[in-house]
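Hey, can you fold this one?
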Amino acid sequence: MKFFINPESGVPFYKQIMQQIEKGLARGVIQPGMKLPTVREVASELKINPNTVARAYRELEAKGIIQSMQGRGTFISTELALANQGVIRRGAHTLVKDLARQLVQEANQLNIPPEEIREVFLDELRLWQHGRVE
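Sure. Predicted structure:
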């Protein structure tokens, strides 16, 4: 699994890592039981502080999304798939809501009125419903 960081997004790096794992689960790209790269591997690849990656992993573990097994590594929780099907769905909704909030904030900074934002969103939604957007 590869992680990507956008330093200009305004979203803390640890949250970006968490969001990528949660999105991967919601999309089915990441499966329960899958082994995650080590904290050091991710930090080295992204050129960020290992404590940042460790924080993301800690918070995901607290949510029951991942499990750390000493000497074996960190894995996507298999219990998540069996016991918490709704967690993945709620996570997807939260991510979409966060993206919508970011869109509104960006549009506000560009002085785009709410009616125009609504129209752009509805146009994109119509395209998606007709299979024209990936």
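The longest helix spans residues 85-109. Let me know if you want another pass with a different chain boundary.
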